[in-house]
Amino acid sequence: MIDDDNIPDRDAGINGYQKIDRYNPELIKDLSANYHKVLELIGEKPDREGLLKTPERMAKAMLFLTQGYDLSAKDILESAMFKEDYSQMVIVKDIEVYSMCEHHMLPFFGKAHVAYIPNGHVVGLSKIPRVVDVFARRLQVQERLTNEIRDCIQETLQPIGVGVVIECRHLCMSMRGVQKQNSVTTTSAFTGEFLKEKTRTEFLDLISSRLS
Ligand SMILES: Nc1nc2c(ncn2[C@@H]2O[C@H](COP(=O)(O)OP(=O)(O)OP(=O)(O)O)[C@@H](O)[C@H]2O)c(=O)[nH]1
Ligand SMILES: [Zn+2]
Question: Which residue numbers delimit the GTP cyclohydrolase I domain (predicted)?
Fold first, then answer.
């Protein structure tokens, strides 16, 4: 069971998370010192030549991979909403997703397919993958990632409906644990018109078709 009770409002203010200065040299130093300790504790020699800069690299990589905590997906969408009289489905499919599971902090990765039916406003197309990245660059479970993308688009753009499908491989299930190399997890979330079978089927058909 996933316990959602302790998760702060993921997209309020600066997202309800502790505000950090992600690029502060002191923070990078502090994180690096902790990663130095991690290397020691796993049996490595952090002071051997090949590892000298590794704690700092790890610190910078982790700060990059979690930068979604500092960003507001709502602001990103609002920055490029345009009045447009288009009322058919808009789909951005095959958006690369790279996130980390909150249980093991190991990557899960794959594709997101996002659709909406405009209600007087469209959004700049690039903003959809940006929204996916904001939520993916936080510690996640795939189900919550899917719902957060759906809810943000629904609440901000107020379209006639939103559909999100995400397909990912979880390294915590392949590199370790149950060690299944080929399993793919699919999650989906819908609002409005997409709750109707006909619209949902059209969306699912369109994301499974391949243009040559
Ligand atoms: N629902 C869901 N589960 C996830 C996700 N990412 C990782 N998990 C699962 O989180 C669970 C954590 O279970 P635990 O039994 O506490 O952890 P564990 O002993 O490391 O479990 P194993 O992976 O089975 O070895 C595992 O079943 C993972 O597969 C996700 O995005 N969604
Ligand atoms: Zn995991």
Answer: 33-207
- Which residue is closest in CA terms to ligand 1's atom 14? 103
The CATH 3.30.1130.10 domain(s) of the chain lie at 79-208
User: pTM for the full model?
Assistant: 0.92
**How open is the CA angle 146-6-156, to the nearest 5 degrees?**
40
- Sign of the four-CA dihedral 38, 141, 180, 109: negative
pLDDT tens track for 18-60: 888 888 999 999 999 999 999 999 999 999 999 999 999 999 9
Any atom of ligand 1 within 6 Å of the Cβ of 145: no
Q: Which architecture does CATH list for 1-70?
A: Orthogonal Bundle (1.10)
Which of 144, 172, 180, 183 to probe ligand 1 with, by most ligand atoms within 8 A of CB?
172
CB atoms within 10 A of CB 26: 8
